[in-house]
């Protein structure tokens, strides 16, 4: 089978194609013919050696993808040939609070990921995806959508009538917008682009703030809630955004610490957290049970992920470069089963 690997050093220039022996499913495992994958910012950091510089190479990158079950190992009853499934992000985290080994069982580093024609995974470590979704839409779910679901639903206990502040218009953020709207919540969204804000409003955001032209966007968000503050912040910016998030949040609100797009070391006023009873909740994607709940909710509403673009596997480097350029709106996907290599 053909796979994309990062080898000989980190960097997009070291993405290459490799021929690997076709894998065989062992007891309790399934063989998947992969159809599509999607990129997350983490995958870009991984390929550049910035996510885990000690990651052994070669590595098949990317955590997210969808495939069809084409082989069953001994003892597998949970799935059948022909099922269309997504491998879960942390392969061993099925439900509950994770232990250390479970959060280390992640695809696309340290484990080989989804950019391969064939993949063997444990039958327990996949989720069947709704039939109405295209392969690209299904491939968009495992990391970004589950992260947004965990932040707002599993941990965030979102209620109808809540106000959610969503930062930026990347993968996690547009899923947060979708999930918040499915729950009857209001969404205030930020972006560096006025055009993207218009598109986000078309998807249901009530208000948009350009975080470049309005660096005090946290204050503006608070004003938009009659100075009460928002109930949730989906915090993907990191070091440069947490201060404004603390300005936007209401007393007793929750900030989901998800991303570090602007850096990992933040200086934050601790009094702003304690005086307002704010909860800072670290989020690491989520477990299989959250993924399954997400799929049920999407299917009830026939809701679709926002797909920015789809690249052929042969153009994998261009797909990563597209993400690095930051002009995307929603998910960047890669078609695996229609390659021209
Ligand atoms: N903890 C977890 O489990 C988890 C899971 C998934 C992702 N993440 C992290 O979450 C972040 C987003 O991931 P993603 O895959 O959604 O990325 P993505 O699709 O590449 O989205 C990036 C978007 O974020 C916005 N952005 C960039 N810098 C920003 C800033 N300083 N303030 C506000 N928005 C900013 C930009 O939106 P505009 O173009 O609209 O300005 C950009 O398009 C990354 O740091 C990623 O590592 C964490």
Based on the model shown, name its key terms:
alpha/beta; 2 domains; single chain; six-stranded parallel sheet; 341 residues; binds NADP nicotinamide-adenine-dinucleotide phosphate; Rossmann fold; seven-stranded mixed sheet; Quinone Oxidoreductase, Chain A, domain 1; globular
Summarize the structure.
The protein is α/β, with parallel strands linked by helices and 341 residues long.
Average of the residue pLDDT scores: 97
CATH class of the largest domain: Alpha Beta
Following the backbone from N to C, one meets helices and strands in this order, namely EEEHEEHEEHHEHEHEHEHEHEHEHE
The helix fraction, in percent, is 25-40%
Bound molecules: NADP nicotinamide-adenine-dinucleotide phosphate
- Name the CATH superfamily assignment of the largest domain: Medium-chain alcohol dehydrogenases, catalytic domain
What's the number of domains? 2
Cα(first) to Cα(last) distance is 12 Å
- The parts where pLDDT drops under 50 for at least 5 residues are none
Shape: globular
Number of helices: 11
CATH structural architecture of the largest domain: Alpha-Beta Complex
As for the CATH topology of the largest domain, it is Quinone Oxidoreductase, Chain A, domain 1
Rg from C-alpha positions?
Answer: 20 Å
Number of strands: 15
Give a written overview of the molecule:
Strands 3, 4, 5, 6, 7, 14 and 15 form a 7-stranded mixed β-sheet that branches. A 6-stranded parallel β-sheet has the order 10-9-8-11-12-13, with helices on both faces. The protein is α/β, with parallel strands linked by helices. The chain has helices spanning 41-47, 100-103, 135-139, 141-154, 171-182, 194-202, 217-224, 242-248, 270-274, 288-301, 316-325; strands at 2-6, 15-19, 29-38, 64-72, 84-87, 118-122, 126-128, 163-167, 186-191, 207-210, 230-235, 249-257, 279-282, 307-312, 331-335. Strand 14 (307-312), helix 11 and strand 15 (331-335) form a beta-alpha-beta unit. The structure holds NADP nicotinamide-adenine-dinucleotide phosphate. Residues 40-42, 143-144, 147, 167-173, 190-193, 196, 211, 236-237, 240-241, 258-262, 283-285, 323, 326 line the site of NADP nicotinamide-adenine-dinucleotide phosphate. Residues 40-42, 143-144, 147, 167-173, 190-193, 196, 211, 236-237, 240-241, 258-262, 283-285, 323, 326 line the site of NADP nicotinamide-adenine-dinucleotide phosphate (NAP).
């Amino acid at each position: 089978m053909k796979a994309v690997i990062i080898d000989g050093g980190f960097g997009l220039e070291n993405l290459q194609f490799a021929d690997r022996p076709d894998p065989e499913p062992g007891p309790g495992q399934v063989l998947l013919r992969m159809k599509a994958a999607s990129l997350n910012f983490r995958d870009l950091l991984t390929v550049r050696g910035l996510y885990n510089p000690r990651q052994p190479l070669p590595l098949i990158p990317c955590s997210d993808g969808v495939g069809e079950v084409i082989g069953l190992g001994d003892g597998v009853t949970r799935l059948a040939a022909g099922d269309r499934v997504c491998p879960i992000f942390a392969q061993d985290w099925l439900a509950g609070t994770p232990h250390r080994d479970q959060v280390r069982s992640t695809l696309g580093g340290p484990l080989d990921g989804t950019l391969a024609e064939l993949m063997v995974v444990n039958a327990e470590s996949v989720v069947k995806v709704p039939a109405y979704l295209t392969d690209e839409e299904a491939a968009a779910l495992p990391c970004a959508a589950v992260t947004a679901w965990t932040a707002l639903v599993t941990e965030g206990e979102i209620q109808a009538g809540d106000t959610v502040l969503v930062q930026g218009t990347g993968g996690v953020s547009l899923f947060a917008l979708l999930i918040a709207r499915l729950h009857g919540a209001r969404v205030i969204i930020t972006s560096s682009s006025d055009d993207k804000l218009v598109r986000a409003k078309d998807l249901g955001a009530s208000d948009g703030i350009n975080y470049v032209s309005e660096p005090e966007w946290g204050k503006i968000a608070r004003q938009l809630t009659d100075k009460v503050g928002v109930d949730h912040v989906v915090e993907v910016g990191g070091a440069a955004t947490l201060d404004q998030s603390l300005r936007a949040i209401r007393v007793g609100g929750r900030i989901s610490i998800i991303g570090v797009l602007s850096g990992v070391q933040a200086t934050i006023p601790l009094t702003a957290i304690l005086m307002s009873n704010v909860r800072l909740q670290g989020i690491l994607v989520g477990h299989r049970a959250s993924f399954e709940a997400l799929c049920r909710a999407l299917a009830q509403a026939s809701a679709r992920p926002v797909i920015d673009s789809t690249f052929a596997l042969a153009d994998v480097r261009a797909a990563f470069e597209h993400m690095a350029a930051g002009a995307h709106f929603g998910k960047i996907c890669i078609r695996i089963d229609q390659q021209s290599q």
